[in-house]
């Protein structure tokens, strides 16, 4: 209804939807993404970028399956993360390939074991308020990584190569070379 934001003050638990900017919520809240990452024990590969997230996530999942590694496709593509967590008998050896949007990363309190940042260009400024805020949201994929995790990023994008990632993960710059 029109007064949905007022209901946050009468709630014991607020779970913010990714499409709602965090500035609209004035009480403590969590997100489905945080609930998922806070409760999942599987290895995770999180993929983000302005363009190509779905294709790269699907390709990563396909490569894992082809290599004989159990994998599930989830996030913005495939099975919704909470459904995967709640509705499936998830094998602990299954690797999760997760497409992550800037909306989901904006207030994430966890990181995947492997994070992939494909590219960056001005997008979703209406949601984030500025390109700097959008870039900051994408960077958050790496904030909670440990020294046992990996951050792969496309170094052809100047902004990504020069980002001061606040992470303990091993940073691996990617630069594709194709011969025709």
Instruction: Tell me the number of strands.
Output: 8
Question: What is the terminal separation in angstroms?
Answer: 56 Å
Strand content: 15-25%
Based on CA atoms alone, the radius of gyration comes out at 17 Å
Helix and strand run = EEHEHEHEHEHHEHE
Quaternary organization: single chain
Global shape: globular
Rounded average pLDDT: 89
Would you write up a description of this structure?
This protein has 180 residues and is of the alpha/beta class. 28% of the residues lie in helices and 18% in strands. It has helices at 32-39, 53-66, 81-87, 102-105, 125-128, 131-139, 158-161, and strands spanning 15-16, 30-31, 44-48, 71-75, 95-99, 114-117, 150-154, 170-174. The radius of gyration is 17 Å and the shape is globular. The mean pLDDT is 89.
Considering the chains and any ligands shown, give keywords for the structure.
single chain, 180 residues, alpha/beta, six-stranded parallel sheet, 7 helices, 18% strand, globular
Structure in a nutshell:
The protein is α/β, with parallel strands linked by helices. The protein is built from seven helices and eight strands.
Topology:
Blueprint lengths: L14 E2 L13 E2 H8 L4 E5 L4 H14 L4 E5 L5 H7 L7 E5 L2 H4 L8 E4 L7 H4 L2 H9 L10 E5 L3 H4 L8 E5 L6
Parallel strand pairs: 1-2, 3-5, 3-6, 4-5, 6-7, 7-8
């Amino acid at each position: 209804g029109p007064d949905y934001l007022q209901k946050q003050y009468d709630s014991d638990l607020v779970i913010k939807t990714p499409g709602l900017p965090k500035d609209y919520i004035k009480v403590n809240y969590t997100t489905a993404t945080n609930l998922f990452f806070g409760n999942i024990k599987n290895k995770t590969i999180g993929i983000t970028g302005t363009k190509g997230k779905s294709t790269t996530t699907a390709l990563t999942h396909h490569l894992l399956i082809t290599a004989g590694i159990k994998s599930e496709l989830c996030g913005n593509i495939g099975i919704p993360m909470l459904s995967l967590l709640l509705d499936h008998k998830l094998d602990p050896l299954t690797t999760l390939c997760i497409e992550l949007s800037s909306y989901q990363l904006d207030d994430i309190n966890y990181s995947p074991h492997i994070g992939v940042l494909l590219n960056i260009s001005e997008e979703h400024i209406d949601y984030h308020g500025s390109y700097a805020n959008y870039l900051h949201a994408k960077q958050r994929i790496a904030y909670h990584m440990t020294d046992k995790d990996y951050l792969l990023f496309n170094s052809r994008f100047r902004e990504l190569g020069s980002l001061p990632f606040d992470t303990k993960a091993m940073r691996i710059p990617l630069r594709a070379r194709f011969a025709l």
